[in-house]
Every structure is written in C-alpha cells, then in structure tokens.
Backbone:
C-alpha cells in the first residue's frame, strides 16, 4: 500500500472507545448524536489527534531513517529539535534529553545522519514527527551492512546452529573472563561473582576490547583459555558503546575462536539492545556482562541451602537404614538356637514324618474300600427287580387287551352306522324307486338338461336291474314343466 493510502486508512480506522466516553464534552452535540447514532457523533480535535497518534505508534515500528540535518535546535531543557530531509521530503524530529545525553555526537546543520525513531503525532499542533531514540553518522550504515553480510555467511556455515550450543555447567570449578583489565565490565563481573560464588576461582585472560587488531587479540585469549583447560566456562564481555566501539566483537576471527572453544562460552557484550556476531557464535548470549556473571555462577546461598536439605535428607535416610538393620539383627538373633535344641527339633520332625508315612501307606487301602462300598451301594440301588417288572408287564398286557377290545367294538359300531347311511344315499336305491340315469356315450357324462339331448345321439340308460344303449330318434319339446 502506498504511504499516503496507509496513513489515510490509519486515520479513519482508529478505535471508537476513546470517543464513547466523552458524553461530558461541552463541544459534543448530544442532540445530533442521539438522533443519528454514533456515526454522526461530534468529537473535539484533541481526541482526533490523540487517536491518530495512538494509531501511528501502534502501526509503525521503530525504524532507521537517513537524511540531512536541518533547523537543528538544542533547547534549554536539553531536548533536541531538528528536521531530517532529502531531495523529495522532510520530517520533523524530536530527541528528548533522556536519549540525547547518551548520543556520541551533536548533529550540525547539513550533517548526514541516521536516526532510529518512532512515528508520533504532536497533538497540540496536529503535526507528524519522529521521536528519535538513537542517532548515528551515515557511515555506520555500512558497518551494519558488513555485520549482516558476515552474519549470513557464518549462519550458512552452521556456526550459529542450535545443535552446536553447549549447556553451561551447573557447578563450575573455575570461571574464565576474557576482557580488558581496565574495563568497567570486569569490575561488574567480579563483583557479581564474589557476591554469588566467592568459592569459585576466577581467571582473567586480559585483552583490549577497543582499537585496531583487537579481534585477533581477543581470539588469541579465547584460544589460550581453551588450550590450557583450567576453567569450565568462559565469559567474553565488555561494556556498552557505539557500533564502532563494539566492532571488534563482530569480526570473523573472534566468532570462529568462540565457536571452536573447548569449553562453553557466554557472550556479555554491551547493553541488552546490542547484538554482535560474538553473541550468535557463543553458546549462551547474556544481555549484559553482569547477567553473564549471573548465568555462569551458582548462587552460594542457594547452594548452601540445598546442601543443608541434602544433609538433612541423608541423615534421615541413614537413621532409617540403621533402624532397619537393627530390626534385621533382632530377627536373626531370634533364629539362632543351640545344637542340642536343633537336634531335638529334628528328631521331633522325623517322628512326625514317620507318622505321616504310616498314615500315607494305609490311606490308599481305606480309600479303595470306601470307593468299592460306594460302587456296591450304587449298584444295589440301580439293580432291576425282575418279579416287579414281570407283574408290571402283565398289567400292561391286560390293559392293552381290554383297550383293543373296546376300540374294536367302537370301530364295528362306527362301520355299521356308516354302512346304513351309505345305503340310504346309494344311487341304486334311487334307481329302484323308478328313476333312470342317462349317460352320454361319447363324453361319458350324465345328461342333466334337455338342451343336451340331440337326435341320433347314442345314450346309455341305467335302470334298477341293468342298463341299455339307446339312440334318440326325435325329441319332442315339453309343453309344461308340471308332471
């Protein structure tokens, strides 16, 4: 998004809550707000500028801006007011005294500089400005480019890989420090070590931390400490300063010496916001030299407290072990007996075994007899009684004979009844009463209707005493249905 469109979007998309609590503002039009809703609310200019300023500070991060100094003014309060410009545009800047007093130089009219600042809004005048936190000469940008190039190179080689990092020893036997003897950082580190771990010896490997050829000297001290193997952990440190002052810790020779060190290395260079190549090459990066000393030194008070706890736990464990041993001795003492008593116990045991052997020999016989008696009893129980069974069969035969006789009588009576009913319904009886049955000789069916009679058609007449074949010569229509 172009810068003009971005600022426009930021101004018209600020949060609404700052204006929602302004009902007491004498300049707000309550009537219009109540009638039209929040979209028509009237807000004062100060609230608008405040919202725009808050949005700018949240949206734009800290950024380095380069340009030429113009209209530089140092106020009596110590604040710096100036503009930074190039051929196309300019931006008003303010650097407050708390930041300005740490600047390494005072800019002059026409100087080309780089400032690190945050985009803000000066609310009283509604002007956009840059709140400057740091200033440096333009040449420092080239150093930063060299820093990034070397960092990318060493990172590509795997010099900063996490798997290369080593853990710091929890209880170092000796601590080494690579720094200048005149550095304030050395005093801070020694003070911290004497306060936290006065029992740990400290060895200083002196080397200058600023000037020409410093990186090679620092690397030589790191190599010397690694070769002598007289410390368990090494601190490489110096106090804060500009990028030029810290540049020795951005040299490749020192980074490789730190990475190849035989013991873990803690880098404590500059302030918390300062990052160097040595920080990335070291096993642990501390924000300050004091913090580096705190990282490598166990706190003596905590060690003594832990030692007391362990001593108490050891004493309790030893006491419990002695109690268990005493109990075991008492148990073993109860098991000790004289030889005579032991022989008597063995004789008693042999007598018991003899009794058990005798009883064991008689037991199978008793068991066999008991099983035989049980089988005999069960056989007697299930043995059949032939006399009773024979009487039972005779009774069943008598019942069968009686039952068959009765069944024969009932069947004979039923046959007689059905024969009588059959005689009543027999066709022969009907013929005997004077009727005759006409059968169509061709189809074999009985003639039932006069329409079925045809001249010259052969018929069979069944009578009571026989049958005869006839042929109809002629058929006369019946005059009346009555006989």
Residues:
């Amino acid at each position: 998004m172009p810068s003009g469109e971005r600022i426009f979007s930021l101004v018209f998309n600020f949060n609404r809550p700052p204006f929602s609590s302004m009902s007491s503002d004498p300049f707000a039009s309550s009537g219009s707000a109540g009638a039209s809703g929040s979209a028509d609310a009237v807000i004062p200019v100060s609230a608008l500028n405040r919202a725009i300023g808050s949005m700018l500070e949240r949206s734009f991060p800290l950024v380095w801006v380069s340009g030429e100094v113009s209209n530089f003014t140092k106020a009596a309060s110590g604040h710096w007011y100036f503009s930074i410009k190039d051929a196309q545009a300019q931006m008003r800047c303010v650097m407050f005294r708390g930041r300005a007093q740490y600047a390494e130089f005072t800019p002059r009219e026409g100087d080309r500089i780089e400032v690190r600042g945050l985009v803000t809004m000066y609310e009283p005048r509604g002007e956009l400005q840059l709140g400057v936190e740091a200033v440096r000469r333009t040449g420092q940008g080239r150093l930063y480019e060299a820093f990034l190039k070397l960092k990318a190179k060493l990172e590509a080689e795997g010099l900063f890989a996490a798997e290369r990092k080593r853990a710091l020893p929890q209880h170092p036997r000796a601590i080494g420090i690579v720094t200048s003897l005149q550095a304030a950082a050395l005093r801070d580190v020694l003070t911290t070590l004497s306060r936290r771990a006065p029992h740990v010896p400290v060895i200083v490997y002196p080397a200058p931390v600023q000037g020409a050829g410093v990186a090679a000297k620092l690397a030589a001290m790191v190599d010397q400490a690694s070769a002598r193997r007289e410390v368990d952990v090494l601190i490489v440190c110096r106090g804060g300063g500009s990028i030029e002052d810290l540049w020795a810790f951005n040299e490749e020779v020192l980074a490789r010496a730190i990475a190849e060190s035989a013991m873990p290395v803690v880098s404590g260079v500059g302030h918390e916001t300062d990052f160097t190549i040595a920080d990335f090459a070291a096993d642990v990066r501390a924000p300050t030299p004091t913090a580096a000393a705190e990282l490598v030194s166990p706190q003596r008070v905590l060690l003594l407290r832990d030692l007391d706890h362990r001593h108490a736990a050891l004493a309790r464990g030893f006491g419990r072990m002695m109690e268990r041993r005493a109990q075991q001795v008492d148990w073993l003492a109860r098991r000790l007996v004289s030889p005579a008593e032991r022989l008597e116990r063995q004789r008693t045991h042999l007598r018991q075994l003899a009794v058990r052997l005798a009883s064991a020999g008689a037991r199978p016989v008793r068991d066999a007899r008991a099983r035989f008696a049980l089988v005999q009893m069960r056989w007697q129980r299930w043995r059949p009684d032939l006399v009773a069974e024979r009487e039972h069969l005779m009774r069943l035969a008598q019942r069968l004979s009686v039952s068959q006789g009765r069944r024969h009588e009932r069947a004979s009576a039923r046959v007689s009844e059905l024969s009588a009913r059959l005689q009543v319904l027999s066709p022969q009886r009907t013929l005997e009463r004077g009727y005759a049955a006409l059968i169509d000789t061709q189809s074999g069916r009985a003639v039932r209707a006069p329409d079925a009679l045809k001249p010259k058609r052969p018929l069979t007449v069944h009578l009571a005493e026989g049958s005869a074949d006839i042929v109809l010569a002629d058929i006369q229509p019946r005059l009346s249905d009555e006989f």
In short: The longest helix spans residues 339-382. The chain has four domains: 3-139, 143-298, 300-358, 424-483. Confidence is low (pLDDT under 50) at residues 1-37. The two ends are 128 Å apart (CA to CA).
